[in-house]
């Protein structure tokens, strides 16, 4: 790509800031005004990372808004609902009825969770304007909530007692339609009692979204979890998966909590110890024959041997034993050496890869942002900078799409997507990115 085709830092800043302003509701940023009209958990983490460069107080409020919807058991919910938009997304508040569940907050939320990137985001937001952060007591207020959130994961989601948190629904992984979940999801009934509606298809092509059977299974699983009071002690729950992406983000956020504890004069040792335990447990997911981390199906006690971007995310962890192998895999024919501009969500050589279909081949901007951070952690600066430039260029050129074809860069999903704008902005504000 020629230098004159790349947007300059000011162009990126202006376009991204304008979109984030447009999607701001007053206390949080919606991922996209049509397709995703509520507040999503890990979206807010990524959005805050970008907002810190142009509106640090809004970045703090983004995370504070989410944490205000924390459950009594410590969970941060997947979605905080805007009741005025309940018909615009399914399943919404009318499905979850969270306020009828013991321990749920007054604000209407989903009962599920999403990957824990929040402490990492909070630390970056604080560092963007520490004077403002201290004046607003941002970290002082956030720290106990983040400790409770991580405590929930350790106490309620470590189903094997091995140190890893499990997801109990594909939506909790953030990578809903990943091939990692295919086998486990195939055993889930596709007969929910709730009528499955698809408002998403009014904003994105059917060929880009999960199919009818997948959605029916998603609803059935969500129904079961809801009807059990969102209680994680349901031993017969049929979908329990340990995801390398979810757990790597938990570990890096635990390290961020250690830094936050130090800033507040608290003991950082428990956080560093838990981060080390998660990182050590992740090694049980490593697949040496594939040079990547897989997922574990806890119900069947089996490793899922599929090569997805989830398995590259552990690169964000310092001292990772298999960092060199992950970099080789990332550079290899299934990912960047397959002619890709950005890292795809699934091995391009797989017979069922589809570069337009949700999480089954397209490149996602949040995952590529995480991998840029991982490459920099392991001193792969030139590759990190090259990837960052592609993220910025494709994001701005196509109006901040949800995801793109990794080979052609063709945009897919919805447009004006908040985390795409936020993370392109973050990379543009990094001196070496442009």
From TrEMBL:
<dbReference type="InterPro" id="IPR054491">
    <property type="entry name" value="MGH1-like_GH"/>
</dbReference>
<dbReference type="InterPro" id="IPR008928">
    <property type="entry name" value="6-hairpin_glycosidase_sf"/>
</dbReference>
<protein>
    <recommendedName>
        <fullName>Mannosylglycerate hydrolase MGH1-like glycoside hydrolase domain-containing protein</fullName>
    </recommendedName>
</protein>
<dbReference type="Pfam" id="PF22422">
    <property type="entry name" value="MGH1-like_GH"/>
</dbReference>
<feature type="domain" description="Mannosylglycerate hydrolase MGH1-like glycoside hydrolase">
    <location>
        <begin position="36"/>
        <end position="420"/>
    </location>
</feature>
<dbReference type="GO" id="GO:0004573">
    <property type="term" value="F:Glc3Man9GlcNAc2 oligosaccharide glucosidase activity"/>
</dbReference>
<dbReference type="InterPro" id="IPR012341">
    <property type="entry name" value="6hp_glycosidase-like_sf"/>
</dbReference>
<comment type="similarity">
    <text>Belongs to the glycosyl hydrolase 63 family.</text>
</comment>
<dbReference type="GO" id="GO:0009311">
    <property type="term" value="P:oligosaccharide metabolic process"/>
</dbReference>
<dbReference type="GO" id="GO:0006487">
    <property type="term" value="P:protein N-linked glycosylation"/>
</dbReference>
<keyword id="KW-0326">Glycosidase</keyword>
<dbReference type="InterPro" id="IPR004888">
    <property type="entry name" value="Glycoside_hydrolase_63"/>
</dbReference>
<keyword id="KW-0378">Hydrolase</keyword>
């Amino acid at each position: 790509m020629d230098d004159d085709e790349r947007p300059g830092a000011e162009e990126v800043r202006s376009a991204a800031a304008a979109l984030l302003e447009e999607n701001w509701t007053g206390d949080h940023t919606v991922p996209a005004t049509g397709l995703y009209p509520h507040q999503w958990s890990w979206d807010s983490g990524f959005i805050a990372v970008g907002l810190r460069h142009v509106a640090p107080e809004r970045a703090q409020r983004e995370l504070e808004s989410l944490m205000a919807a924390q459950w009594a058991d410590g969970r941060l919910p997947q979605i905080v609902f805007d009741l005025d938009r309940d018909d615009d997304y399914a399943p919404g508040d009318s499905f979850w009825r969270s306020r009828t569940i013991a321990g749920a907050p007054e604000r209407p939320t989903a009962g599920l969770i999403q990957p824990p990137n929040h402490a990492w985001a909070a630390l970056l937001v604080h560092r963007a304007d520490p004077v403002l952060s201290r004046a607003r007591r941002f970290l002082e207020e956030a720290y106990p909530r983040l400790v409770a959130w991580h405590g929930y994961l350790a106490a309620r989601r470590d189903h094997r007692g091995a140190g890893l948190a499990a997801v109990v629904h594909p939506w909790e992984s953030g990578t809903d339609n990943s091939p990692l979940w295919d086998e486990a999801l195939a055993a889930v009934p596709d007969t929910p009692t709730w009528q499955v509606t698809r408002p998403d298809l009014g904003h994105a092509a059917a060929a880009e979204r999960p199919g009818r059977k997948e959605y029916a299974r998603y609803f059935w699983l969500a129904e079961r979890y809801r009807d059990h009071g969102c209680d994680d002690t349901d031993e017969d729950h049929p979908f329990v998966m340990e995801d390398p992406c979810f757990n790597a983000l938990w570990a890096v956020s635990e390290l961020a909590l250690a830094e936050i504890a130090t800033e507040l004069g608290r003991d950082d040792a428990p956080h560093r110890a838990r981060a080390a335990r998660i990182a050590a447990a992740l090694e049980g997911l490593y697949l040496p024959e594939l040079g990547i981390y897989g997922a574990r199906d806890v119900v069947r006690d089996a490793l899922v041997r599929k090569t997805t971007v989830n398995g590259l995310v552990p690169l964000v962890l310092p001292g990772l034993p298999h960092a060199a192998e992950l970099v080789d895999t990332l550079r290899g024919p299934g990912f960047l050496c397959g002619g890709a501009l950005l890292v795809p969500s699934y091995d391009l050589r797989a017979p069922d890869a589809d570069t337009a279909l949700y999480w089954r081949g397209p490149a996602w901007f949040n995952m590529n942002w995480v991998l840029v951070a991982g490459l920099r952690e392991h001193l792969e600066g030139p590759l990190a900078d090259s990837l960052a430039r592609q993220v910025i260029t494709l994001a701005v050129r196509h109006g901040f799409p949800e995801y793109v074809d990794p080979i052609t860069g063709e945009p897919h999903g919805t447009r004006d997507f908040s985390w795409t704008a936020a993370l392109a902005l973050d990379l543009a504000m990094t001196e070496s990115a442009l």
